[in-house]
Amino acid sequence: MADISKDQVKHVAHLARLAVTDEEVDKFTEQLSSIITYAEQLNELDTDGVEPTTHVLDLKNVLRKDEPKEWITQEEALKNAPDKKDGHYRVPSILE
């Protein structure tokens, strides 16, 4: 892949709505080109026979088993509510 040009850096900065100086454009051009060069080294690896992974760890379902259990009653849930009415929490209105 070709090196990143200054015009490409300016174009990406424009798309990202970033104000960059000419010094920053020079700096980013050099840095992005070195990043691309480094990433291109991955193309040299032989990945034949390597199974694609979706996660680096071999995780299975990590969620707990969904089992019914006893829960608190409505009265227990509302006992510390500062304001309640007809079995519901009352909160200040946010709509006018």
UniProtKB/TrEMBL annotation:
Documented EC number(s): 6.3.5.-
Record bears the keyword Isomerase: no
Basic and acidic residues composition-biased segments: 74-89
Catalytic reaction list: L-aspartyl-tRNA(Asn) + L-glutamine + ATP + H2O = L-asparaginyl-tRNA(Asn) + L-glutamate + ADP + phosphate + 2 H(+); L-glutamyl-tRNA(Gln) + L-glutamine + ATP + H2O = L-glutaminyl-tRNA(Gln) + L-glutamate + ADP + phosphate + H(+)
Keyword line: ATP-binding, Ligase, Nucleotide-binding, Protein biosynthesis, Transferase
GO molecular function, one term: transferase activity
Ranges for region Disordered: 74-96
Pfam families named in the record: GatC (PF02686)
A single GO BP: regulation of translational fidelity
Domain of life of the source: Bacteria
Known partners and oligomeric status: Heterotrimer of A, B and C subunits.
Family in the record: Belongs to the GatC family.
Entry-linked NCBIfam families: gatC
Described purpose of this protein according to its UniProt entry: Allows the formation of correctly charged Asn-tRNA(Asn) or Gln-tRNA(Gln) through the transamidation of misacylated Asp-tRNA(Asn) or Glu-tRNA(Gln) in organisms which lack either or both of asparaginyl-tRNA or glutaminyl-tRNA synthetases. The reaction takes place in the presence of glutamine and ATP through an activated phospho-Asp-tRNA(Asn) or phospho-Glu-tRNA(Gln).
Identification of the protein by name: Aspartyl/glutamyl-tRNA(Asn/Gln) amidotransferase subunit C
Higher taxonomy: Bacteria, Bacillati, Bacillota, Bacilli, Bacillales
Gene name of this polypeptide: gatC_3
